[in-house]
Amino acid sequence: MVEYFGEQLSGFAFTANGWVQSYGSRCVKPPIIYGDVSRPKPMTVFWSSTAQSMTKRPMKGMLTGPVTILNWSFVRNDQPRHETCYQIALAIKDEVEDLEKGGIGVIQIDEAALREGLPLRKAEHSFYLDWAVHSFRITNCGVQDSTQIHTHMCYSNFNDNIHSIIDMDADVITIENSRSDEKLLSVFREGVKYGAGIGPGVYDIHSPRIPSTDEIADRINKMLAVLEQNILWVNPDCGLKTRKYTEVKPALKNMVHAAKLIRSQLASAKISEEDYVKAIKEDIKKVVDIQEDLDIDVLVHGEPEYFGEQLSGFAFTANGWVQSYGSRCVKPPIIYGDVSRPKPMTVFWSSTAQSMTKRPMKGMLTGPVTILNWSFVRNDQPRHETCYQIALAIKDEVEDLEKGGIGVIQIDEAALREGLPLRKAEHSFYLDWAVHSFRITNCGVQDSTQIHTHMCYSNFNDIIHSIIDMDADVITIENSRSDEKLLSVFREGVKYGAGIGPGVYDIHSPRIPSTDEIADRINKMLAVLEQNILWVNPDCGLKTRKYTEVKPALKNMVDAAKLIRSQLASAK
């Protein structure tokens, strides 16, 4: 895949440096679909045909499917999503037919994000899957029977949508399955007969570890215990193309935060430790002053220092970048041994920030479950034991933050739900130890210290009791792109009783919402939540946004909060 075809479609616009993750370690600049989609000319045909001319073996043409393109784009909102998807499908159909004419007999149309696009409401699943499957079938409805159509799907539980996968009518489906139990594949032969080729990943390409021949052979044998040998394809669990650091560096350079540059200079001995501390203090002061000028109630210090690398039992790669969430890329740690905290990690910087203001300064930490789920984890002990070790290390940090004068401490559990096992029967045990880990982190603080947590965009209905059991004083959630009715779970059926901060605007977009727009959203939230528990905040951290975007957006948010407070006061 030396050429990407997305930028050759009409109706798409691309940013210069708007990097976000695609999947795995791949970062892309997602397109903005602003108009009708079409294919002015062939996109991958020349390169695929050139490659085919170099070998007598089948050369696979590689395309991204319409549903995945849709789900990984900023989509126009002046027509239904499925209509846009059909337009993309017709454009890809033209490409598929030209690939076939160019001598390509095997064409893969990846639908890695098919399941990712499922609506939160289960009642809407059927309609989504109908048009998603129809879009895929449009792409290859004109090819000969002799042309083999493949598709690829990411790590998922296929039980609840196996019939839709069958309806896609692909000749071969490859799936990212190396990190799951082979028994999950039984859905392809139990209850329904898939009848086409299946290629579960035989090794995990996300790890730098090289599996032995015997190890892969053993995995294949386990698959053959579930699948018939005439349908099994042997392949890695995902594409092997990763970007070199030298390719990504120019684009990332424009996004580098000043503090990140300072850290780099310290690491390369270009500045002294004293100069580094001075520069970071100046950076924190700038962040504090901006928030005070905007009249924000509870401040943050901008997290100029990362604390993960200060924990024992962790190792870090030099250039092993993968996505964390949104547009944030990190080098995930490798947990190789027992975890502990040799010394305070964020206390100095948080206390320094608190000394610059009379307003509450929030200490910011990542929770143990999220650290675990975003790391390569040792496999010589149960995951929950490793999680408890991380929790105890963070507990020490939380207590030192409290002693250092920090009265509001946020322990992010953005990936709590992400770690749920595929088998529903295992959810209860996972949630038990996940909640217990979180509670360990703050079990030693005073009642006067306010504990916050943050969770990413999710459907909380099935884990609301676990969220309540976490016993946080305030939970902020990434909710700006969903319906306010989803918040009703916090007051219907169960009484949450603590503060809730649903995101009032989407930080993943450079767009600046108006005061009226944010006020309208707050009013919609107040139709579902009680006013005494509602916190007004962005839906996630602002590190990926420029100051020119952050300042006006936060000003409008504060103005909207003041407007609603005034309206509520006058209504009494």
TrEMBL record:
<dbReference type="GO" id="GO:0009086">
    <property type="term" value="P:methionine biosynthetic process"/>
</dbReference>
<dbReference type="GO" id="GO:0003871">
    <property type="term" value="F:5-methyltetrahydropteroyltriglutamate-homocysteine S-methyltransferase activity"/>
</dbReference>
<dbReference type="InterPro" id="IPR002629">
    <property type="entry name" value="Met_Synth_C/arc"/>
</dbReference>
<protein>
    <recommendedName>
        <fullName>Cobalamin-independent methionine synthase MetE C-terminal/archaeal domain-containing protein</fullName>
    </recommendedName>
</protein>
<keyword id="KW-0479">Metal-binding</keyword>
<dbReference type="GO" id="GO:0008270">
    <property type="term" value="F:zinc ion binding"/>
</dbReference>
<feature type="domain" description="Cobalamin-independent methionine synthase MetE C-terminal/archaeal">
    <location>
        <begin position="1"/>
        <end position="260"/>
    </location>
</feature>
<keyword id="KW-0862">Zinc</keyword>
<dbReference type="Pfam" id="PF01717">
    <property type="entry name" value="Meth_synt_2"/>
</dbReference>
<dbReference type="InterPro" id="IPR038071">
    <property type="entry name" value="UROD/MetE-like_sf"/>
</dbReference>
<feature type="domain" description="Cobalamin-independent methionine synthase MetE C-terminal/archaeal">
    <location>
        <begin position="262"/>
        <end position="562"/>
    </location>
</feature>
